[in-house]
Amino acid sequence: MSARAVALRRYAEIVFTLAQRDFKGRFRGNWLGFVGIAIIPLLFLLIYTFVFTTLMPIQLKPGADREDYAFFFFSGLIGWTLFADSTARAPRLFASHAHFVRKALFPASALPAASVLVAFYNAMLWATAFIVVRWLREGSVPPTVMLAPLLLLWIAVLALGVSLLLAACGAFMRDLGELIGPALTVALFASPVIYSSERIAKAAPWLVVWNPVAQPIEAMRTALFEGRWPAVSEVATGLVWAAAVLALGLVVYRRAEPFLADLS
Predict the structure, then answer these.
(1) Of 128, 162, 121, 133, nearest to 146 (Cα)?
(2) Band of pLDDT at residue 65, cut at 50, 70 and 90
(3) What residues have CB less than 8 Å from 133, skipping those under 6 apart?
(4) Cα–Cα distance measured from residue 159 to residue 161, given in angstroms and rounded to the nearest whole number
(5) What are the two backbone dihedrals, phi and then psi, of residue 83, each rounded to the nearest 5 degrees?
(6) Are 75 and 224 in contact (CB under 8 A)?
(7) Distance between CA 140 and CA 57 in Å, rounded?
(8) Would you list the DSSP string of 125-156?
(9) What's the CA dihedral at 195, 115, 126, 202 to 10 degrees?
(10) Is the per-residue pLDDT at 264 higher than 60?
(11) Which pLDDT tens digit goes with each residue over 87-97?
(12) pLDDT of residue 225
């Protein structure tokens, strides 16, 4: 085994170890344990169904079931939650794990990677909840639901690029973490979560073109809610966006890496 392969294996082991510790720490000591985390997305879906069918009824189109908007919204929220959870934590990652960053042999980039992996685990639980409830509701699910892990992996790559960028910048600008919450709120309304990409495009087409998270979220909704295969051209464009954002994040992180131990 080459030295590079050994290094990559060690890096992957560090990321998985950090992610597992973080993920397990979220339900350690809870009365329901892991089951508590597993039922949270189910509870959210039930709450959204109640709200959008009873308290604030919304129909996607005339004649559609009242429950459809809850599933429409939830299918978009799955990918957004993965992206937002990891992005929100990124600016303070190095400062909050300074004991790791100061270690000479520890790869600091493993912290954003582990954070994204934990968000991926959670998103998989949300996607599983959606599929289970849809199966119970309709008696079957379309074969396109098999794309869920791949589409979430696409969003995870995008989230990793943004997390590396924000984590590196956050080490120099400690107040960056205060700005991420409002920025994510704006980004939520600029993304096809509450409404579709077509509706956004009618009002401001540039929001769809220049929002890298829009296409994977819409692809998730297409596969899970509509039961259709996402358009190849849109997926290809979105993958280019994800690769570009990841490359930018890596460049910024590598520029900042020599100074992280002193700043954390």
Answers:
(1) 128
(2) low
(3) 42, 45
(4) 5
(5) -65, -45
(6) yes
(7) 25
(8) HHHHHHHHHHHHHHS---GGGGGHHHHHHHHH
(9) 10
(10) no
(11) 999 999 998 88
(12) 93
Cα dist. 226→75, 131, 193 in Å? 10, 12, 14
* Amino acid present at 245: V
CA distance 71 to 77: 10
CA dist., res. 207 & res. 114, Å (int): 29
Cβ(121)–Cβ(198) under 8 Å? no
**Spatial contact of 86 and 115, defined as CB atoms under 8 Å apart:** yes
pLDDT exceeds cutoff 60 at 31 = no
> Phi, psi (5° rounding) for residue 67?
-75, -15
Structure tokens at 241: 């966006």
> What is the CB neighbour count within 10 angstroms for residue 56?
9
Each residue of 185-196: b (16+ CB within 10 Å) or e?
eebbebbbbeeb
pLDDT at 27: 65
Buried b (16+ CB within 10 A) or exposed e, 14-53: bbeebbeebbeeebeeeeeeeeebeebbbebbeebbeebb
CA angle (173 as vertex; 171, 175 as ends), nearest 5? 115
The answer for residues whose C-beta is within 8 angstroms of residue 56's C-beta and 6 or more apart is none
Contacts 24+ apart (CB under 8 A), 45-53: 45/70, 45/71, 45/74, 45/129, 45/130, 45/133, 48/73, 48/74
Read off the pLDDT band of 216 (50, 70, 90).
Answer: very high
